[in-house]
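INFO batch 0412 | record 1 of 1 | parsing
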Amino acid sequence: MGIDVKFLEELCSRTLQSTDFEGLGERHVGKVRDSYVKGKERTIVVTDRVSCFDVVVGTIPLKGQVLNQAAAFWFDKVGDIAPHHLLGVPDPCVSRVRECGLLPVEFVYRGYLTGSTSTSIWTAYERGERSYCGHSLPEGMRRHEQLPTALLTPTTKASAGKHDELTSRGELIASGVISEELYDEAARITGALFEMGQRWAESRGLILVDTKYELGIGEAGELVVIDEIHTPDSSRYWYRESYERAMSEERNPEAIDKEYVRLWLGEQGFKGEGPPPALPDEVRCEAARRYIEAFEQISGRSFEPDEEDPIARIARNLGLDASSTP
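INFO prediction complete | emitting tokens
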């Protein structure tokens, strides 16, 4: 397991930054994913773009392959809790999914008092706030400490280029964004997903610290798990074995997720406003190494990178005419 850093350095010059395929359907560009909708199906191409503070800040080699395969690994585990949208994985970076209506809410579960963004629970707590997304927080807690109970802290679902906003169950229902019945069913599903993810992570020597879920509505009106689940892009993971030692030494727990990139950007003074600093190749490679380590630690599988030019490979695997590639 593991990957050669020299190999990652070589890949820095040929990451999958964007796509524009013809014949796949109507194109929608998100922060990380390019989606193509045709009829009742959606083709999702997971690029190597990385988004921090709701801003695309660059690319990380092999990130799309890692995220797509990590999401597929987890979707295979959620069937007993709720239906999901995944139909197939025809390429390392591509998922075919059923098209669903989108709930305009991100369901963020937090198990620990941590975070580095302006909207994180730790940032709010450090400012002296003891009410967060409708939840009361106890006095005297330390950074990175486990919360008394996992909290559902929803945010609005912002479009590309805009920031998600913290909200609460009461605010969402009062505004008419979502009904009480639908919110509570979504809370039940995402709570069960978080519990499942935490149990699995613990069995693999990790702590699933926090994560976000997106849900859609299927043709029959059922809630469907969509987007991604428990990937190192949408979730924070710490090593369980070193967590207590890190707390006793008052330092950050050892992590394998996107937080590494966020912290580096923060050290450069970037928190989401203005143009982001360019990510040096050494930061991009270290981030890639952590993403791959997260996939292997969680899944127990070796990550097998596909080195072929991604655009040509995707076109072939999707049966597209070569002339349709950008």
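INFO post-check: The longest helix spans residues 180-203.
INFO record closed
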